[in-house]
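Database export, one record per block. Field names are fixed; values are copied verbatim from the stored entry.
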Amino acid sequence: MDFWQRYRAIDARDTRFDGQFFTAVRTTGIYCRPSCPARTPKAENVTFYETSAAAHDAGYRACKRCLPEAVPGTPAWNLRSDIAGRAMRLINDGVINRDGVEGLASRLGYSSRQLNRILSHELGAGPLSLARASRAQTARTLLVSTTMKLADVAFAAGFSSVRQFNETVAEVFDMTPTALRSTARHHPSAPASTSLTLALPYREPFDPGVFSFLAVRAIPGIEAGTATSYARTLRLPHGDARFSVEYTGAEYSATANGTGEGGTPRYDGGPHGRPLVLTIGAVDLRDLPALLSRVRRLFDLDADPVAIDGALGADARLSASVAAAPGIRLPGALDPQELLIRAMVGQQITVAAARTALTQLAAAGSPSAAPGDGLSRLFPSPAQIAEAGAELLRGPRRRIESLLAVATALAENTLDLGYGDDLPSLSAKLLPQPGVGPWTVGYVAMRVIGAPDIFLANDAAVRNGIRALSVGASPITGTAGSGATPSSDFQSSDFREVSPWRSYATMHLWRAAAAAPRNSVPPTPAARRAQPTKATVQ
């Protein structure tokens, strides 16, 4: 977006752009979210910044009226595969808190000096400033949403000392931590347990179908899911964690961050949105920023659904599906290594068969140190799979050997993948591994790094979804009841017209395939000539 496009967005107070850029006003020394209800400043007094950290470094403080830190993050970090995007994914996961700038730089293959120069040029702030802004955002969330002691908030947000925490909050928000806590419109009552409850901000619309996606793949004892909730145990750098997320229509006042027009409560999810409520049953406070970041990635809460739906809805094959399920999300991954194992187990079998195989494999996992709510185990580590997988896995010997080889490589760190990868690096790491092909690489890219433009052309469910949607849509107008199949004269078979959002198109196709009655959609002649080679875990 250029200057005037952004200026028009702030003049319209467009909530879609909250978190995607920040507006700083020279005459007030304040930076705001684009939808700030304050009077629109004169254009000559406005500077736009890609990140809140850049605004901090330029000497601006956060607006007390619109709370720019209380917004979803930018979808750019998944859309961008450059160093800046990869670095931001790792910073949000807490890499600097754990390993410092040197650790971040080594993961990206640069020196710390080079990385600082790149990020300063691309984002207006260096890695330390970006991490500091992330800590400030986490601290604000905890201050207004929980009754945690201030010292606990400081260390949970990633600060090395209470003094550093106090100084950062005062500099960023122009308030002490106690004063910032007092700004919460509704204060949570003292909890009866040690759990934390937070509301997760997101951009509307939000399609809760992601809960069903996770529920049908949930491994008993490790995960539990319904159409509106998901819970699981998780291994994090400093210990085990347990959390649940619920999509609820009930009023949730504990984390209301002010009031909207007419004095109505405005939640982090949006002025009229149903809140997503995160309950953390157990976690080492040092792992809290990483857990928050991974949960947000799991539910794709930083996506821009209006932009995505606008592109997908223009395709006649997808228009009806987009209208029926606006705001579809791309499920992420809580653990990149676990996701690779799950993808390999399910890459040539159905969802139900994959879940059965993974349930058997889960016996290799250790009991969780944070049990509760029927969740008592952890997904097995690569080392545990390499040791016990041969006895637990069923199927062709070659497939089992491939899984064991990859698990061994992960356990020995000869294979390393994570949120800092991009599609080329994932391909270079995974394709040489036995039993890994282009489908697996694409699926891992979708789930681990949130790659938005993956189209799994040889996926059986994708092809079934195309056939299911083609029964009721016209290739040109998308009108129901035509019985026509999409014409190659107007639309490409790889959905390139909706790029860079083909991963979201894949989600619509998977949903259509799952909803279609079995054997109700006969394959087209072209589909019969090109039968898919995979019945995938999708």
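Remark 1: The chain is about 45% helix and 10% strand.
Remark 2: The CA atoms of residues 113 and 477 lie 54 Å apart.
End of record.
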